[in-house]
Protein 1
Amino acid sequence: MIVLKSPQEIEKISQACRIVAMTLIYLKEWVKPGISTQELDRLAEEFIVKQGARPAFKGYRNFPCTLCTSVNEEVVHGIPSKRRLKEGDIIGIDAGAVVEGFFGDAAITLPVGKITPEIQDLLEVTEQALYKGIAQASPGNRLTDISHAIQTHAEGAGYSVVTDFVGHGIGRNLHEDPQVPNFGQPGQGPLLKEGMVLAIEPMVNMGGSAVRILEDHWTVMTQDESLSAHFEHTIAVTSDGPVILTKL
């Protein structure tokens, strides 16, 4: 069931989302060759708690950390570890926060030092695909109008979208209805209505769309070991169109 949020509830979600946005901006300063994903996780947890929130992911379905840190061919849900980032890597950082029982969720993929123009293009196209999808999140459109916009942009640039994992509704729970695929024909699915709050999150691969889950039962990586990028915003559907809650 899709739960429409009141303006007061959206304001609470916005508070959590602002902390997520602040956290990702803060982490950008630390992403450089030599730092471990475990260190980034510690910094994120300290920062979120200092803002008066709690990490949304830690303990969720027994996930052990504050961040999901997915490096290179890892798509999503990477578990922070002692692994140190190297020049030329890319890292997807997914962060969530809870304020007074309301959730916010966002992700970015960052370069580690200098990356090749080809990899930079993957990052740019994936972020552009996110905004193409968000632009469709207006009352009267259908859910798959978002999906189709993302898929069209990513595939038009020669990449593939992950189909095994999708975006989601968000509010009093981290994952709510509806699921928000990054693929599909337009004009299908639920009608978008004012009060919907969605986490839209394209995952785009340089190679094929197939993925597999590692033995840790969390980390998702590309089947062909090609690079993958992930960007996410939490947005509210309003009468004036989409409002990005995880953007300062």
Protein 2
Amino acid sequence: MEPSFSQPQLSGQTVVVLGGSAGIGLETARRAHAEGAKLILVGREPGRLKRAAQDVEAERTAVFDVQDTQALDAFFAGLDTPIDHVMVTAGRPTYGRVVDMNVDKARHALDEHLVMVTQVARCAAPKVRAPGALLFMGGTGARRPAVGLALASTVTMALPALIANLALEVAPVRVNLIAAGFVDTPLSASLLGSELENRRSQLRTVLPIHRVVGPGDVAALAVHIMINTALTGATYDIDGGQQLVAA
């Protein structure tokens, strides 16, 4: 019997990764590249973005902050060829008691996630060829109320509803959300500092999968959602069972 070889599933397609210079974004770019996709990477730090672009042979890069609405508008308006998928990993969670928080900081935290999603959808959807997808990142860890998680919980609970409604508004372009628990990325390292290794050890012990979720796990899910054109309006959890245990 002749050996069978799977064909690249994203050949001829273009994937834009906002936040593509490190972590989940860069790993998604690698995975999409392996599936034959052309890549456009966006990041805030020029040197790191240049290295990432070389890594995945990106056809184009752009340096700007996704929170900059004018830059975001200009970027998508300036794309002279259609694109197929947009992956957004930019942004970071905000923790702290809201009763002690500056109102401007609280407003920025909500803008950084909820408003940013609507801005990306508004700018990107007209450029995406159906049945391509817009894919956003959310979380699972803040589904349980706790002191210091008010804003993170609000974003966690609101994003699935926003994604479902956007999927109807921009159809036949697809819109989906990946909700991750702890993922071992440079962002996690910056948030946890000296506690990072303790957190890793704890999760290896208590998670049902007996290991820590890495960016490659999330990237594999992201690329699957791009490939499977029946998926839209949904939230996909990936946390190694973190929600099932006291972790």
Protein 3
Amino acid sequence: MLKHQPYASLRNSELSSAISKRLNAFEQSIRQASEHYAGYPDNLNYDYTPLLPFFQYSMINAGDPFVQTDWALHSKDFEREAVEWFAQLYQLDPAWGYVTSGGTEGNFHGIFLGRELYPDGILYFSSESHYSIAKAAYMMKIPHVIIPSQCNGEIEYNALRHSLAQYSRKPAIINLNIGTTMDGAIDDIDQVCGLLTEHPGDFYLHCDAALGGMLLPFLDNAPRINFRDYPINSLAVSGNKFIGAPIPHGVVLSRASDVEKVGAQVDYIGCQDKTITGVRSGLAALCLWYAIQTRQHHFATEAQHCVVRAQYLQQQLQQIGVLAQLNPFSNTVVFPKPIKQICQKWQLATKDGRAHIVVMQHLDYSKIDNFIDDMRFRHTNE
């Protein structure tokens, strides 16, 4: 039997009232949760109200964003401009890319491309890599080696050297973390490229730059991440993290010469499809384009403020006796997991007895001080 449908027996007026109450209650809940959103790397400071008129239209971007089709309900022009902005940021020319559903899809595309170029390759990634990397290896059935990580979350380079030497006859598909999920650690691309000079086989480099990819380009003296100076093949960035958006999305960049070797012509949409999902949100692409156009000259200030406030958070925690760690050029502060009530209130991400706060644009000094007050109470009552 079919399950009873909520509100099915209500009259139109009662139904309208019930729906309004449900939505109002949900909005209040979301608003309250946003006040103490600190454990995950999503920026809540954004304003897309000028784009509200576009919510009444269906915008679906299908297939290659760099190929025009007879399909008119799309925002590919804006998608291409957003991709081209990222290509300039990371010095990639000629470039190919598209607006993904998020960092995971970007990682999937990069690793998929590496597998297509080197079908007998082995995927290497650190134990602190985002879970999407292991998920991609599992779903694509790619042989892989998990490399241990250092205590700060950075990949263990000697272990990587050993594994590369052990499988020296196989192409290497390597995932580099430009900010690990838990610690915000940055794998040293110079060291990894140095190791690859000892590797006799082919290699493919993918950079998971979900959050750190929008910090490093705007911080003084930060490590360089670009396609011009390094043999990077692909790079994935999340759009709802540093930039922020109500719709999860991201960008993946790839060398055009690599992408030309994959993809198939799809007559139904009138172009090749080299993407993972085939279709994607045209509204997300529009949001990303709008954020770039209105905020690109403020990204450096935003990145610097996030890092400075993270340093402030670390200092305040240390002053009340909490061991807090912060990697260079990171906005992720790691500390021992506090009591359950604090984890729930501040929605902290936890792992192996540790917790972290990712200091995004919406986490100002007053909220940090409120968190410190909660931690001080916990600490003094242990």
